[in-house]
């Protein structure tokens, strides 16, 4: 970590290098999850309110993660951290529940079956996000 | 799956491979990688125009029409956004960003085909 060559001034950003790819993928998921949740809620909300509320929640998490990762500063770092952790917990819990109790989740969400419908990217993304946040954590005690 | 899907599949796959290889080779975005993303945009534009003509000639979209149009419009925005985003920071990571366009376009084209038929 100490071999970081980036000047201290630009250290507190996460929107550079690999972070740009991360933000791009988050942005794609923010768009697709929002569109999907919007579509589900508008057309068939009554079928499975819980699953569709979860879809909407996932969409919000992706939007917050995308924006906060793109912003510099310690506050946005914390927002990113919370968003990515919520995402990780979400995909693990929803993934597990969808596996053990498919009746509770008759409709797929982004996180159902650990995101298998999306090539497991929803499962990998928060792990990469945490690694990236760790590498770019603000210097000093957070 | 129709010809449009296979066109997006081939061009998208090529573009993703070109961009990822360039990224692995630690190259900054260059004409080749940017043009490969532009090719994806071009194929999607042809898809859009072709689809408009088909609907105008009376063909019916089996699924939700606005879902189909939403997908194709979003797909058309992605290459432009990725190229813009990669020009702002010309590092090898921007090639990976552009590499994500082709594969995303492929997935979206597959979904668009499902909606259409």
TrEMBL record, chain A:
Which domain of life does the UniProt lineage start with?
Answer: Bacteria
Q: Does the keyword Membrane apply?
A: yes
Q: Which residues cross the membrane?
A: 21-42, 48-69, 81-100, 112-134
Q: Which UniProt keywords apply?
A: Membrane, Transmembrane, Transmembrane helix
Q: What is this protein called?
A: Integral membrane protein
Lineage at the top is: Bacteria, Bacillati, Actinomycetota, Actinomycetes, Micrococcales
Automatic annotation (TrEMBL), chain B:
Instruction: Give the transmembrane ranges.
Output: 6-25, 32-56, 68-88, 95-116
Q: Does the keyword Transmembrane helix apply?
A: yes
Which UniProt key words apply to this protein?
Membrane, Transmembrane, Transmembrane helix
- The domain of life is Bacteria
Name the chain's protein: Integral membrane protein
Which organism does this record belong to?
A: Arthrobacter terricola
The beginning of the lineage is: Bacteria, Bacillati, Actinomycetota, Actinomycetes, Micrococcales
């Amino acid at each position: 970590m100490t071999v970081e060559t980036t000047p201290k001034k630009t250290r507190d950003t996460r929107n550079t290098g690999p972070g740009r790819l991360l933000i791009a993928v988050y942005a794609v998921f923010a768009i697709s999850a929002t569109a999907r949740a919007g579509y589900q809620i508008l057309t068939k909300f009554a079928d499975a309110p819980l699953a569709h509320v979860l879809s909407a929640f996932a969409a919000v998490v992706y939007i917050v993660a995308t924006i906060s990762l793109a912003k510099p500063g310690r506050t946005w770092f914390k927002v990113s951290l919370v968003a990515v952790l919520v995402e990780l917990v979400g995909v693990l819990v929803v993934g597990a529940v969808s596996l053990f109790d498919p009746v509770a989740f008759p409709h797929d969400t982004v996180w159902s079956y650990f995101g298998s419908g999306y090539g497991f990217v929803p499962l990998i993304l928060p792990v990469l996000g945490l690694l990236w946040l760790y590498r770019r954590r603000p210097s000093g005690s957070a | 799956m129709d010809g449009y899907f296979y066109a997006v599949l081939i061009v998208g796959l090529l573009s993703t491979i070109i961009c990822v290889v360039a990224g692995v080779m630690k190259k900054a975005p260059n004409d080749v990688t940017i043009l490969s993303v532009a090719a994806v945009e071009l194929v999607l534009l042809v898809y859009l125009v072709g689809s408009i003509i088909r609907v105008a000639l009376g063909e019916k979209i089996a699924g939700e029409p606005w879902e189909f149009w939403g997908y194709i419009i979003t797909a058309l925005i992605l290459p432009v956004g990725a190229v813009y985003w990669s020009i702002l920071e010309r590092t090898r990571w921007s090639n990976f960003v552009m590499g994500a366009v082709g594969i995303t376009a492929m997935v979206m084209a597959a979904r668009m085909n499902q909606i259409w038929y």
